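Checklist before submission:
- one chain only
- standard amino acids only
- sequence pasted in full

Submission:
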Amino acid sequence: MTQFRQVLSQHIGQATADGAGVRLTRVFGGAGIERFDPFLMLDEFGSDNPDDYIAGFPPHPHRGFETITYMLEGRMRHEDHLGNVGLLQSGGVQWMTAARGIIHSEMPEQQEGVMRGFQLWLNLPAKDKLGDAGYRDYAPEEIPRLVTPDGVAVTVIAGQFDDGQVQQAGAVQRPHTLPQLFDLQLPPGARLAPRLADGQRVLLYVYEGELGVNGHAIGKSRLVRLSEKGALELASETGARVLLIAGTPLDEPIVQYGPFVMNSREEIEQALRDFRDDKLTA
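Returned file contents:
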């Protein structure tokens, strides 16, 4: 008999503002983030009102983790202290490794229209938290896309997609946490059974439509956290768009203070001193 991953919990995001007043939904993040290890936060932003996004995210620091920004619609410009400049556009991905420290800005490149997408924070293992910072933009054409025999459109941002019929490596591979990040678009009546390694933490965020997860009905704007073993079957009678997020937990202490994520309070205090003394990126 097939063992299926169990639905452990469902979550509803909270409306908030970040940066210089960008309105967004914090799908998860903050208290209890150990439940989502190795992922720290997921934000969803989406508005056709420029007042909700035009102020953007002026220069700010990070240390100890990676950020993945996936743009569905709109244009955002990245600049950082390393001299990197990139334009994130519809369908593109920005993957930034803060590690020891990075100071960057993310500012809209538009005065009107829709800006819509996601930002995911991925933890780094303790041994890499003070490593070299890095940044890479992935243009839409650099990100593999496929359609399964059942008509499911899959954008393979990171990891390895495998449903037993189609296999495709993503644009990004990472050791240790082995992140899997797929954008799934299920037409009405479609089914999908992505294969994921036992031991990986699996999250599903339904951002359009309704989804069936191993027989459980999941509505729009719901995040589902699944157990770490078993098969996964997805279906949608009416159609759905879903982020599938999976990764191997680090099982290390997580201490967060704003934009700094380390393993101890002492390391956070050091990060604050480094930032105060202009040594965060040294």
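Reviewer check: The chain has one domain: 7-277.
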